[in-house]
Amino acid sequence: MVTYQSSYAWQGLLAVKIDTSGISEAGRVSHIDMTGIAEKRKQECAQYTTTVTEEKCYTHVTTGEKICVKPADNPINQNIPAYCFAENDDSSYLANQIWNYYPYFVQRGIYI
After folding, report:
1. What angle in degrees, to the nearest 10, is found between the helix axes of 37-45 and 90-97?
2. Which of 5, 11, 15, 14 minimizes the C-alpha distance to 34?
3. How many angstroms separate the first and last alpha carbons of the chain?
4. For residues 96 and 88, is the Cβ–Cβ distance under 8 A?
5. Using CA atoms, how far apart are residues 42 and 90, in angstroms rounded to an integer?
6. In the predicted model, is pLDDT for residue 29 greater than 60?
7. Which residues contact 77 (CB under 8 A, 6 or more apart)?
8. Which of 2, 86, 90, 100 is least surrounded by Cβ atoms within 10 Å, i.e. has the fewest?
9. Selected residue with higher pLDDT from 2 and 7
10. Do residues 41 and 93 touch, judged by C-beta distance below 8 A?
11. Could you give the CA distance from residue 102 to residue 90 in angstroms, rounded to a whole number?
C-alpha cells in the first residue's frame, strides 16, 4: 500500500522582489531537467495493472445519496501510485520521485 504521495514538488532557486507594493516573485530556476519525465512516468506506470477501471456508484439505502468511487480511490487499486492515473500530471510523478533528482538540486545561489 502506498502511504506517501504528493501531488506537486519544485526544487530550485526562487528570487523575490520586495518593494513598497509588497513581495512578489522575480524569477525561478531549477536544475532538474524535465526532458523525458513523461516517458519515465509511462515506463514506471506500465508495471501496474488497474483491476477496476470504471467509476463505481452506490446509492445510500436511507438517504438516497449517490456515492461514486473513482478508480484511484477504489481499495482494490490502492497499490497503484496516484501519478499513474490520467487525472494527475508529470509534476505529481516528479513530486514522488524527487529524491532521485538530488544531484540536480540547486545547492546555493546569488541574485543581484
Report:
1. 80
2. 11
3. 47
4. no
5. 10
6. yes
7. 50, 51, 52, 71
8. 86
9. 7
10. yes
11. 18
